[in-house]
Amino acid sequence: MSMRTLLRDRTFLVMVLLLILQQTLVASSTLWLAHLVENIHAGQALWGSLLLYAASLLLPYLPGAGALIALEAWHQRSLARFVDAFARAYSNKIRLWSRSALKERASVTLSKDGPQTLQAWTEYVYGLLASLLNMSLSILVVAYVIDARLLVTYGVAFLAALGLVKVQARKNRQLSLTLESRRQALGTSLFRAWDDVVLGNRWCRALFDAASKKQLNGFKRAALASVRLGQTVAVGVALVTVLPCLAIVALALTRDSATPAAQLAVAATLPRLFQILNSTHTVLSALAAWSAQRGRFDVLCAVVGEGEGPADLLETRIDTSLISVEPKSPDSAPLDAGAFATALGRAGRFTLRGRNGAGKSTFLLLLKERLGDRAFHLPARHDLSFAGAGLHGSSGQKAAREIEEILGLADVDVVLLDEWDAHLDDTARRALSIAIDRLARKKAVVEVRHANDSVWKG
Q1: Tell me: the pLDDT tens digits for 357-387?
Q2: Confidence band of 311 (pLDDT split at 50, 70, 90)
Q3: What value does the CA radius of gyration of the chain take, rounded to a whole number of Å?
Q4: Where are the domains of the chain?
Q5: Which fold has domain 3-306?
Q6: Largest CB tally within 10 Å, which of 92, 257, 380, 414?
Q7: Is residue 453 pLDDT above 60, yes or no?
Q8: Does the domain at residues 314-383+391-448 carry the CATH identifier 3.40.50.300?
C-alpha cells in the first residue's frame, strides 16, 4: 500500500472533479457581486447579475454534497486496501507468529491506529484540496476585479510563505515522527490497562501507573513541541501574505483613475479577499502538516512492511533430542519437520512430549509451514475466528466446538493442536480427548500435551 495507490483510486478522482466544480461556482460569486454593485451604481438592470450571484451561492451545495459522499467512499476503499495489504503481507508468515511484541503492535495498528490514521489522512487531503482550489480560483477573480498586480503580489507572497514552511519542514517531520512514535508507545502502554487496573494487584498497578505516566509525559512533550512549531509557522505566513496584499488594495482604492463604481466593486470584494487570505493560511498550515500526516502514514506502511521482512530461524529453537513422539514418528521418520510432514498419513494421532523449552510448539509451527493449507494449527491461546465464537461456555466446551468445526473442514488433512489440555479439569480433558480421537479417525492429528502422562487419552 502506498499514497500513490490511494490517490489513483477512482473515488478520489471523482471527489477532485466535484471539488473543482464547487469551488469554481464559489469563486464566480465575487465576479457577479462586483457586476451587481456596478449595475446598482450605474442605475442599470439588476436581475441578470442578481440571479447569477444567487446561483453562485446556491449551486455549490450540490457538488459539495457529492464531494463529501465521494470522500467517505474513498475513505472506506482506502481502509479496505489497508486491511488487504496487511493480510497479504502477513498471510502464512508462520515464523512471525510467536513474536509477541510484533503481534501486539500489528494488532493495535490494524484495529485502531490504521482506521484512525486513514480517516485523518483522507479528511486532510480533502481539506487541503478544497482550500487550495478556493484560494487559487478566488484570487484569479479578485485580481481581475481589483488589480492584476494583486495576482503577482499574492503569488510572490505565497512563494515566500511556502519557503518559510519548507525551511521548517525537516524539523516538523522529525517532530511528527517522534510524536507518532510516542503516541503508539502510549497506546501500547494503555492497552494493558484492563488487567492491571481491574484485578487490583498493587504491584502490577504500580508498574502500570509508572509506565503510563512516563509515556503520557513523553507524548505531551512531543505534542506541545509540534503545536508550537506549527503556530510559529502560521504567524509568519500571515504576516508575509496579508501585508503586501493590503498594500495593493490601498493603491487600487486611492489611485486617481479609480471611479466610484470601481471603488465600490473593490470594497465589495474585500470580504472575499480576506477569505482568500484565510484560505492561504489554511493551505500553508496544511502543507506544514504534510510531514505529520506523512509520518503517521509511514508508520502504517512500516508495520505492513514488517510482515515482508526477514523471518525468525525457528529451527534453532528446537532440541529434537529432548522431544519424543507417541506413537513413534510415522513411517519411522526422524523428528524433522520436513520428513515428518511428508510421512504423515491421512489419519492417526501423534503426541509430542518433552520438557518445557524443548521446542514442541515451535515444531508445530514448522509443520504448519511445511503443510500449508493442508494443515489447521490451533494454538493453546488464540484469537482465531470460528463460526461458534459468540457462544458462551467453559474452556472445554469452547475447545470442543472448535474441534467439531475443524472436523467438518474437507480441505484439511492434518490438525496441529498445541497444549489443548491446558487449563482444563479432568472431566473436560477426558471429553475433549475422546473428541480428538474421533477427529483422528478422519485426519492426522499432531498434538502437544500439557499433561505429562497419557492417562487422559481416549
Answers
A1: 878 888 888 888 888 888 888 887 777 787 7
A2: low
A3: 33
A4: 3-306, 314-383+391-448
A5: ABC transporter transmembrane region fold (1.20.1560)
A6: 414
A7: no
A8: yes
Q: For residue 260, which amino acid is it?
A: P
Q: Give the pLDDT confidence score for residue 49 in this predicted structure.
A: 79
Are 207 and 135 contacting, i.e. CB atoms less than 8 angstroms apart?
no
* CB of 410 closer than 8 Å to CB of 426: no
User: What is the rounded average pLDDT of the residues 251-276?
Assistant: 71
Task: Determine the Cα–Cα distance for residues 446 and 349; give it in Å rounded to an integer.
Answer: 6
- In terms of average pLDDT, the best of 224-228, 288-292, 332-336 is 224-228
